[in-house]
Amino acid sequence: MKYRYLGNSGLKISEITYGNWLTHGSQVENEVANDCVRKALDVGITTFDTADVYANTAAEKVLGKALKGERRESLEIFTKVYWPTGPKGPNDSGLSRKHITESINGSLKRLKTDYVDLYQAHRYDTETPLEETMQAFADVVRQGKALYIGVSEWTADQIRAGHALAADLGIQLISSQPQYSMLWRVIEGEVVPTCEELGISQIVWSPMAQGVLSGKYRPGEDLPEGSRATDTKGGANTIKKFMTDDILERVQQLAPVAKELDLSMSQLAIAWVLQNDNVAAALVGASRPEQVEENVKATGVKIPADLMKQIDKALGNVVVKDPKETAKNAPTERPS
């Protein structure tokens, strides 16, 4: 396993980071989830990412139980706040001081830890003054409940404003967690240059485009049984934008590149995002321990420039690059 610094900080994280969105407390039985976490630890993953909203707090509980007994100082545990949890009352979402204060306390209890290494704003809250949000995060840091602050799916302008306020308050905003893959490159135009300037790293989710880049979905063929595209609990909805025949046909053209590097297509997808110097880690989930073991083989892989060009040529115009997509997909009001 290779490790990278997270932003302009001294914190190192495993470049393959274990995430439990759509799995723990939902798609995967708790015993299997525990086995996946144990395998992650065995192969050198030290960084674990979750959120209070995943499976409506159940994912944090499962992760906390799976990590019980591990040396806390040897782990980096990340979680997030914004989306509704609990009974979903008027203050059970967003980035108000009230919701942040109550959410960090709940997350720490579920994760069975005194602090998280990184506490992230899961989206931008249009209904709360940014000053209130950042002051609340600063208090969380000063109370020792989080070491660093991050954001997820914020625009470049939002990141710049948040970073400036964090600096004024004496805390470190060091990470951005966006969607990023060979097929979804919307951060490259504005978010990445802004973050490079400010000393902020990306922790990217969906590096395999919800599994599409694994090559297991073939145009004109039945969906694989038990795959994300057949999951009615949410997986099918998140993957549908990539499930066109044009995209699936072009993804199949990546197979020769993976073969030349002696990688699976999934490993190629993970290795590809890690070629970006601003990416500190690729978030990878798993429904079986074997998947964890396979995914970590992408660590340390260097893809030659000619093969990077071959990937671009194969995917052609199905790649989404418009930086406006970040704002387009963001909530315009606090969810309930």
Strand-pairing-aware structural class: alpha/beta
Number of beta-strand segments: 10
Rg for CA atoms: 19 Å
Total helices: the number is: 13
Shape: globular
**Residue share in helix:** 25-40%
Cα(first) to Cα(last) distance is 40 Å
Task: Please trace the helix and strand order, writing H or E for each element.
Answer: EEEHEHEHEHEHEHEHHHHEHHH
Descriptive report:
The chain is of the alpha/beta class. Helices cover 37% and strands 13% of the residues. It contains 13 helices and 10 strands. The chain has helices spanning 30-42, 58-66, 97-111, 130-142, 156-169, 191-198, 235-239, 245-252, 255-260, 265-273, 289-295, 305-315, 324-328, and strands at residues 3-5, 12-14, 16-19, 47-49, 76-81, 116-121, 146-151, 173-176, 201-204, 279-284. The strands form 2 sheets. It has an 8-stranded parallel β-barrel, surrounded by 4 helices. A two-stranded antiparallel ribbon has the order 1-2. α6 (191-198) links the parallel β8 and β9 (201-204). α4 packs across α5. The longest helix has 15 residues, at 97-111. It starts with a strand and ends in an 8-residue tail after the last helix. The mean pLDDT is 93.
